[in-house]
Design goal:
Layout lengths: L6 E5 L5 E3 L2 H9 L4 E9 L2 E8 H12 L6 H13 L1 E4 L5 E3 L2 H7 L4 E6 L4 E5 H11 L6 H6 L3
Antiparallel strand pairs: 1-7, 2-6, 3-4, 3-5, 4-8, 7-8
Length: about 150
């Protein structure tokens, strides 16, 4: 099974490239994927980048095409998520170039954190990730909320 899990810290280089963590590259090799779709995402008021293998992105596109085209929520989602998407091929060293509009959206400067999300992963500015993690970790203070997840 090919799944993205774990948290990894990296840094962008002077050319705005970032190395994909080796564990994530191994997943991509298993999926026979050499490029990624990178797009915008927001969790509350914190922005990051969603990163999909092309096969997972195509699955998302198929689901969107099956939705009602004129549903305002579908239009809003496409306006943010699909319009911001950019295909990023991996270079020979396992790096991708993060487009300027996506770096600016997510507030990415130099230090980034990759977080696995099973079928895709996210790239966060390190400080933004720490604040988000601290907030999300509070779910463990709410046993009822955990129970509602039915895991």
């Amino acid at each position: 099974m090919h799944r993205f899990s774990g948290t990894f810290e990296h840094a962008t280089d002077d050319k705005n490239r970032v190395a994909i963590p080796s564990k994530f590259r191994d997943v991509l090799v298993g999926l026979h994927q050499q490029a990624l779709m990178v797009t915008r995402f927001r969790s509350g008021d914190r922005r990051c980048l969603d990163v999909y293998p092309l096969s997972a992105w195509e699955d998302l596109e198929a689901k969107l095409l099956a939705k009602r085209r004129f549903d305002p929520r579908v239009q809003q989602f496409k306006a943010v998520d699909v319009s911001g998407a950019h295909e990023c091929p991996l270079d020979g060293q396992g790096r991708i170039l993060l487009p300027q509009h996506l770096r600016e959206y997510a507030g990415i400067r130099r230090d980034v954190v990759f977080t696995g999300q099973i079928d895709m992963f996210k790239i966060w500015d390190r400080d933004t990730w720490q604040r988000t993690f601290d907030e999300h970790e509070k779910i463990f203070d709410q046993p009822d909320a955990l129970g509602e997840l039915d895991l």
